[in-house]
């Protein structure tokens, strides 16, 4: 995995959108049968813990808003299309995976250069936020046990992003939204680039925050 923060961010946003999209499909949104960004089949680990199961009453209550939902789906598709094209052209030397667009994007993100990953992260973020607003679905975030301070800004708002089906792939973010200062930053990210978001790979959380896999699993069970 490419540990550049922009690539990690794009990958995390892609999983978040995949998860929101799966929730949207599960609400059976009327006669809109467009399924161009079909979600994948999820594994057993759906992290139905403290951050809430997206397939619930709140989501079902929104099914009536057909027009609004259709507009949102158009917005999601437009952003996903942009992300897809950007990635496809930026990774011309990588064999093109087949499958639904978001699954393809997940596969291509690690091979992308950081600038492309940054743009892709932006498109996916817009799509994810729009969809989650429509579904009234919160972020897939989970507080880090012990609530340790962010090594970047000191605020105690570190969160695991729990959208990916495999908890060993959950990155950690600072929900205070601090950004990197570059080489002099105390954040401890492998690659420190001025003004990028702070996002650490799951392994960092295990090693630096002294979490064990068992602890992660127990809290999310
Ligand atoms: Zn911070
Ligand atoms: Zn930093």
Round the Cα radius of gyration to an integer and report it. 17 Å
How many strands appear in the DSSP assignment? 4
Largest sheet, order of strands side by side? 1-2-3-4
Shape: globular
> How large is the count of helical segments?
7
Helices and strands, in N-to-C order?
A: HHHHHEEEEHH
Number of domains: 2
- Summing up helix and strand content along with how strands pair, one would put the structural category as mainly alpha
Bound molecules: zinc ion
The helical percent reads: 40-55%
Strand content: 5-15%
Which residues sit in consecutive blocks of at least 5 with pLDDT less than 50? 29-63
Average pLDDT, rounded to a whole number, is 81
Task: Explain how this protein is built.
- This protein has 221 residues and is mainly alpha-helical.
- It folds into 2 domains: 5-135, no CATH class; 141-220, no CATH class.
- Helix content is 43%, strand content 5%.
- The protein has 7 helices and 4 strands; from the N terminus they run αααααββββαα.
- It has helices spanning 5-26, 57-60, 66-90, 101-108, 114-135, 202-208, 213-220, and strands at 141-143, 158-161, 172-174, 199-200.
- A 4-stranded antiparallel beta sheet has the order 1-2-3-4.
- α1 runs antiparallel to α4, α1 packs parallel to α5 and α3 runs antiparallel to α5.
- The radius of gyration is 17 Å and the shape is globular.
- The protein starts with a helix and ends with a helix.
- Mean pLDDT is 81; it is low at 29-63.
């Amino acid at each position: 995995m490419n540990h550049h923060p922009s690539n990690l961010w794009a990958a995390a946003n892609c999983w978040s959108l995949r998860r929101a999209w799966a929730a949207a499909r599960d609400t059976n949104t009327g006669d809109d049968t467009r399924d161009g960004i079909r979600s994948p089949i999820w594994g057993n680990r759906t992290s139905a813990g403290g951050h809430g199961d997206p397939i619930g009453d709140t989501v079902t209550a929104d099914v009536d808003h057909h027009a609004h939902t259709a507009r949102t789906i158009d917005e999601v598709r437009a952003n996903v299309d942009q992300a897809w094209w950007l990635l496809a052209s930026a990774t011309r030397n990588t064999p093109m995976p087949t499958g639904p667009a978001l699954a393809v994007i997940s596969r291509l993100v690690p091979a992308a250069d950081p600038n492309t990953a940054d743009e892709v992260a932006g498109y996916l973020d817009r799509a994810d936020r729009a969809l989650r607003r429509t579904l009234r679905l919160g972020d897939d975030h989970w507080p880090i046990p012990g609530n340790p301070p962010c090594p970047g800004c000191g605020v105690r708002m570190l969160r695991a992003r729990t959208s990916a089906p495999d908890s060993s792939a959950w990155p950690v973010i600072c929900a205070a939204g601090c950004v990197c200062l570059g080489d002099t930053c105390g954040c401890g990210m492998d690659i420190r680039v001025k003004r990028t978001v702070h996002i650490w790979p799951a392994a960092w959380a295990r090693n630096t925050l002294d979490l064990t896999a068992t602890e992660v699993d127990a809290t999310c069970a």
